[in-house]
Amino acid sequence: MSNFNKVDFVTGMRRMVYAVTPNETYFERFEDVPHYINEATPFFWVCMIIEILISVAKQDRKYRLNDSFTSISAGMFSRLPMIILRSITLEGYVWVYRNWRLTELPWDSPWTWWLTFLGVDMGYYWFHRMAHEVNFMWAFHQTHHSSEDYNLSTALRQSALQMYTSWVFYLPLALFIPPSVFLVHQELNILYQFWIHTQYIRSLGPLEYILNTPSHHRVHHGRNPYCIDKNYAGTLIIWDRMFGTFVQEGDEVAYGLTHPINTFEPFAVQFDYTRYLLGRMFGLPGVVNKIKNFLYGPGWLPGKPRTGDIEDIPQIENPVQRYHVTLPSWLSVYVFVHFFVYAFGYQELMARKTTLSQTSVLVFVVYCLLNLTCFGRLFDNTKSAKLFELLRCALFLAGETVMYKSGWYGDKSERPIFVEGLRAFYALSCALWIPIILKSWLPQGKALLNSSVGGKKYL
């Protein structure tokens, strides 16, 4: 079943800001805990649409199509491994709780609830801090910081591998906190961090002393020297104030990585720094330096401090530069429409994953990755993007044909009307790309296309 219409508007918005009570979030079994993040998907879209409308009205370019869709793509990318693999966070926590717990606190106690709230938030702080100060963890976390914009879509730009390092920071809680209570707070803690990715809320007054706010988190996403390695908070900013990593928002923040990746291709967004880290290891002398390459900070080099030297951080350009590729208007519309169609298919996959065979799920995951790769290459406007896009559209037609012949639609002898519409849509898309590819790749194709379309240059 889809996540739409699962939660009423008021409840959904309260969850987004952690405004829930212990009584409404008590669950004896962790299997009964709602999937708060999945159920929040419609609210993500509503909030982003509102912010986009504000940006359009102000004409401030807080949203760019390519960067925002790359962030959303990264969020989709990060959820795909969870379709195939179980959550290592929950599995590891439950195993420790069942085998190593020192005591068992009551799952329906307000004291347990508030203790877990604080424990999960402090666990997140230390995970987040290590993700910036330990290079192999930064290789996963840097995905989230790679956006050069700062808006609600940036919150969705998540790593597919980060979960494999974050889970260990919560294990001390498993010695006494029931898994159901932990899971509630672990999901709500992540959910809270969505709305603070905005530039339109400047200050929350006295709450700035206690809570992590948009102002504090803007600093965290900055590449200005004063922003580096600051404000790691999840929900409460008190941990940064206690452990010396807090800084107030000052000069205008420039967002993104100190060394930008300059691409919208999803595999590069996810894994380019990991590849760089592995490559750098071979150029470092001695075993000790090779180990430090992974355990010290991203800015470390032999002779430098553990977390690098702040003087090595590039100065902010004036005006601030952001990677951008201007596409023809028709291509921007094309990608928008295809991404919209894909997003609905992705949502249905997430909703129906438990009813599909493992083979079907694996095929869908691979096809999802191909979709995201194609969109990224189109936004980069690379030469290979055209061929990839033709392949993607052709594979949809071939895959749907196999599904139809194998009885995917049950006893119906005809395809549903919406499927017929999708087939026509993808067939027209294939017809669009064939002459464009001929023009780009074959000299004789250029003459053929020019004669058939009046010599207009589309790419």
From TrEMBL:
It is a multi-pass membrane protein. Its cofactor is Fe cation. One of its GO terms (cellular component) is endoplasmic reticulum membrane. It is an enzyme of class 1 (oxidoreductase). It catalyses: 1-O-(1,2-saturated-alkyl)-sn-glycerol + (6R)-L-erythro-5,6,7,8-tetrahydrobiopterin + O2 = a 1-(1-hydroxyalkyl)-sn-glycerol + (6R)-L-erythro-6,7-dihydrobiopterin + H2O. GO terms for biological process: lipid biosynthetic process; membrane lipid metabolic process. Keywords: Endoplasmic reticulum, Iron, Lipid metabolism, Membrane, Oxidoreductase, Transmembrane, Transmembrane helix. Its main location: endoplasmic reticulum. Residues 331-398 form the Alkylglycerol monooxygenase C-terminal domain. The keyword 4Fe-4S does not apply. The chain crosses the membrane at residues 40-57, 69-90, 110-127, 325-344, 356-375. InterPro entries: AGMP_C (IPR056853), Fatty_acid_hydroxylase (IPR006694), Sterol_desaturase/TMEM195 (IPR051689). It is found in: Endoplasmic reticulum membrane. Residues 114-245 form the Fatty acid hydroxylase domain. Coiled coil: none annotated. One of its GO terms (molecular function) is iron ion binding. It holds the Pfam family FA_hydroxylase. Its EC number is 1.14.16.5. PANTHER family: ALKYLGLYCEROL MONOOXYGENASE, STEROL DESATURASE-RELATED PROTEIN. Belongs to the sterol desaturase family. TMEM195 subfamily. This is Alkylglycerol monooxygenase. It comes from Dreissena polymorpha (Zebra mussel).
